[in-house]
């Protein structure tokens, strides 16, 4: 395997990583506040669909991205109402939302995008950072992103800092996620923190969906996220609810997805079904405890009831 091949695999892996990472960074905020946002897949898929529809309708990928974020925020608002205001089971809400999004986007694509006119999807072109994009291996992966890709990485950095225990926001998230009742007694805005966490996760997932559709694929297809939202949730668990851990877990899953296409091109004979399963098999290993155990926020998935 020569250097060019390694560079290509790395660039492809980072391309898969960015949507996972930005969505996982938003999910980290939500879970640290105590809400398991399992509907991340729905938010990413809806964001991808709305991004393509918005870009096709307006001719602008920027407006398409805005549409993607707004569409994902709609799901975030619904998730907030069901999981926080109505205290519904967060896992059931997530599964139902994912099923709803799959059906709605499939129908919407048939109705609005598959009319036989062959819509050209306006997408983002790459912006190469002078000199840095020529650095072997990492240069094309990190410094030849689209503007949306750079925005996603900037959002990841901001959310990582916000989740730090050295910031007020990070301390509030930890307090609310560990013991919501005690946090409420000290005057912390538990419900507001949880609403904010879910909406941040939704906005980040919308960006991830737009990145996938408008930067990587320049198209929309049925179920195009293909479980990326679930991988983002797993990345938070495998990353032990810490920003740096989420980063490495996302890179790991992104490279695993890139290997689906790289191994056959390298002449490695592996059953195709196994290659498709590879990221998810690795995800199971990551959350099984074989690579180290960690403790989730104590009140994760626990509905908040104000003490009398």
TrEMBL record:
Q: Where are the transmembrane segments?
A: 6-24, 36-56, 62-84, 91-113, 142-163, 195-214, 220-239, 246-266, 272-291
What domain of life does the native source organism fall in? Bacteria
Q: Which Pfam families match?
A: BPD_transp_2
State the UniProt keywords alphabetically.
Cell membrane, Membrane, Transmembrane, Transmembrane helix
Q: Which InterPro entries match?
A: ABC_transp_permease (IPR001851)
Q: How does it sit in the membrane?
A: Multi-pass membrane protein
Keyword hit for Phosphoprotein:
no
The record's subcellular locations are:
Cell membrane
What is the recorded name of this protein? ABC transporter permease
Question: Source species, please?
Answer: Nocardia thailandica
């Amino acid at each position: 395997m020569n250097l060019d091949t390694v560079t290509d695999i790395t660039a492809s892996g980072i391309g898969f990583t960015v949507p996972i990472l930005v969505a996982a960074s938003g999910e980290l905020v939500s879970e640290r506040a105590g809400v398991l946002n399992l509907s991340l897949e729905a938010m990413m898929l809806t964001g991808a669909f709305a991004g393509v529809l918005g870009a096709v309708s307006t001719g602008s990928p920027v407006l398409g991205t805005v549409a993607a974020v707004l569409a994902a925020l709609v799901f975030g608002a619904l998730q907030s109402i069901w999981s926080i205001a109505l205290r519904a089971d967060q896992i059931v809400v997530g599964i139902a939302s994912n099923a709803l999004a799959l059906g709605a986007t499939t129908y919407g694509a048939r109705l609005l995008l598959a009319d036989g006119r062959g819509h050209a999807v306006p997408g983002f072109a790459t912006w190469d950072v002078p000199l840095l994009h020529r650095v072997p291996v990492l240069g094309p992966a990190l410094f030849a992103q689209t503007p949306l890709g750079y925005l996603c990485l900037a959002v990841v950095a901001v959310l990582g800092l916000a989740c730090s225990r050295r910031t007020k926001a990070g301390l509030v998230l930890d307090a609310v996620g560990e013991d919501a009742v005690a946090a409420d007694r000290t005057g912390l805005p538990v419900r507001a923190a949880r609403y904010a966490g879910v909406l941040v996760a939704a906005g980040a997932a919308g960006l991830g969906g737009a990145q996938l559709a408008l930067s990587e694929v320049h198209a929309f297809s049925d179920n195009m996220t293909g479980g990326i939202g679930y991988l983002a949730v797993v990345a938070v668990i495998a990353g032990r609810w810490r920003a740096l851990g989420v980063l490495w877990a996302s890179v790991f899953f992104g490279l695993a997805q890139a290997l689906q296409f790289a191994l056959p091109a390298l002449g490695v004979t592996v059953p195709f079904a196994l290659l498709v399963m590879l990221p998810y098999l690795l995800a199971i290993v990551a959350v099984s405890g074989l690579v180290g155990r960690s403790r989730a926020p104590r009140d994760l998935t626990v509905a908040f009831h104000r003490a009398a």
